[in-house]
Amino acid sequence: MSHDPLDVRAEAASMTRASEIRTGRRRFIGGGARVAAGLSVLAVLNGCSRKPPPAIGGAVPKVRARTVPKDKRGTPGQLRLGIVRSGAPDAPALTDVESMLVHARLVAVDPRNGHVFGDLASEVERPEPTTLRFTIDSGARFHVQGSDQPRPVTAEAVKASFERRAAEGVPLFSQVVEKIEAQDNRHVVLRLRAPFALLFELLGGVSANVTSDATYAGLNERVGAGPFVPSAREGALLRLSANPLLKGDDAPRLSQISVVGAALERDLDLAFAKGDIDIRRHTDEPGVLIGSGREGRMLVRRPAARMRGLGLSLVGKKDGRDVRFVAAFQDPRVRRALSLSIDRNALRQADNAFTSGPVGPAHAADAIAAKDLEAHALYQYKPQEAAELLRAAGHEGLAFAVVHPDIPAMLPLVKAVGESLTLGGFAPRMQSMPFAAWQTTLAAGDFEATLVELTNLDTPDLGLRLHQSGGLDGRFSPWGYSNPVYDAAVLDALRQFDPAERATKSREAQRLLLDDVPAMLPIYAPGESISIAMGITGYTADAYDFNIGYLARDWAISGQ
Fold first, then answer.
1. Which whole-number Å values give the CA distances from 550 to 10, 69, 162, 456, 497, in the listed order?
2. What is the mean pLDDT of residues 243-259?
3. Domains, the chain, ordered by start
4. What pTM value is reported for the model?
5. Residue 185 pLDDT greater than 70, yes or no
6. What does residue 92 show for φ and ψ, rounded to 5 degrees?
7. 497-to-24, 268, 269, 505 alpha-carbon distances in Å
8. Is the dihedral of CA 26, 32, 34, 35 positive or negative?
9. Residue 199: Cβ within 10 Å count
10. What phi-psi label fits residue 558: left (phi over 0), alpha (psi between -120 and 50 degrees) or beta?
C-alpha cells in the first residue's frame, strides 16, 4: 500500500463489510490499473429503480466525429515514451498506456467538457429507459496478422469481448450491464440494471477494450483495432507501429512509438534529461528539476487526481459507534469561520497547486471553475471576519485537535493551516499520528478534525459521494454531515447518461454544498508536471487518458 496521506481505495476498503456485495474501485473502473476508491456497484446504483421511467437517465449523448487538426501533416516521426514496467510473471502483456494506444473502444469521453466521441461506435440510441444501442463504424477493422485479410469489428466481436470481461469479473460488465446483445453485424445492445452516470467514461477505459479472439505473434495479448500495432517485445522495449489500415485524416501522424521500460521512476527522469525519451510525467519535484537538463524542454503543469482538505467531525455516533467530534462544528457559522481562516491562495502558491472544489479540477467538466470558486464567499481569506463569526456563534477561542499522518510532505501544510486557524480565533492542536493509525481513525470517523490528502480521485463521482450522508460506501459519512437536498442533487446527477449533462448537475450540487458549508473543506488540488521535448505537437496533457486513448493519433514531431 502506498503511504500517500489517504488513498481513497484504502479508506473505503476499510469500511467494507464482508457480508455486503462490494468491489474494489480499482477493479470497478478498469479491471486492472484504473484506480479509485473501494465502492460497491450497489452504492453506485443506489436509488435507481430497476425499471425506471424514461425521464430518469436523461437523454443519451451525441456521439461526435473525430476532429481533424487544421495544421498540415509533416513527415511521420518516431516518438519515445518511458514507463516503469513490472517484472512480475503475472503482469499483463501491455501496460495501461500501451493498451490505450493499441486498442480501440466504443467511445471516448473528453474530461474537459464531457463530450462523447466515437471510436468504434458512430451512434448511440436509447430505445428503452435502461437499454442503449450502439452502431458500429462499418469501416472498423482489427489489426492484420501476417498474411491474413483484415477482419471487421462486428457487433458479435464487441459482444464476445465484453462477455469475456464479464467472465473475468470486471464489474462494469458483470454487475452494471445485465445483458449484451448483437442485433446484427453493426448494432450491439447493452441492457443495464439501472441508469449509470459513469457508463460512457468506463466504456472509454481500458476495461472496455474491444479485442478479437486472436492474439499477437510473440505477445500474450488479444488483437485490437486501435491506432498503433505492437510488435514482439525486445527486452524492456516495445515498438508500436502506425496502424496501416487507417488512411488519410484517420491515420496516426507518427510512424512509430517506442515504449522503453525502466525499473525505477527516477530512471525515467534521467532518461528524459539525457534525450532517451521524449515525454515524461514526473512523480516529484526533484524529477522536474532533473528534467530541466533537457534543452528546449517544455514543462506543462496540470491538476493531479488528488485533493487536500480539512475534515471536521460533526456528530458523536457513526455506524453505531461512539466517536470523537466537536458539537460546535454543527453550526455552519463555525464551519464558515474555519474556511475563512484558510489562506488558500498562499497555500496554493507554496505548493504550486490548483484551486479545487468538492470535485477536483482534473475533472474539468464536472468541477466548478477556478474563477467561480475564488469568487465564492467561502473561499475568501478573512481571518478578522472569521474571528467575529466565531464570537457571534459563542465559540470564541474554540479548541480542538487536528490529526494528520506523520508524512513529511504534509508538514508544511500542517504548520501553515495551524497558524491560519489560530489567526482566525481558533485554538487548534496539531497532532501527528502514524499513518496506519491515522488511516483507521479516519475510516471510522473517529477524530475531531483532520487534515487529509485524498488520492486516486480518478472519477468525478468520488468528490460528490464523499459529502453524501452515506459517504463513499453508502454506510456512513466520516464527517457526520447530512444534507438531504444535496443527497438528492447528487443522485440526480449520477442518474444521467450524458456526461455533459451529469457535469452540469454535478456543478449545481456542489454549489448547494458550498452554500451549506461542507464538513470537509477543500483546500487545493496538488499539481503534477509533464516534461515534453522540443518539437512535439498534439500532446494534450489536460485531457489525461483521453489524450492517450483517443488523441494519440494526432501526436506529431516536427523537425525529424
1. 30, 13, 20, 22, 20
2. 96
3. 59-68+105-214 (3.90.76.10), 75-103+226-297+537-560 (3.40.190.10), 307-527 (3.10.105.10)
4. 0.90
5. yes
6. -65, 155
7. 23, 39, 40, 12
8. positive
9. 24
10. beta
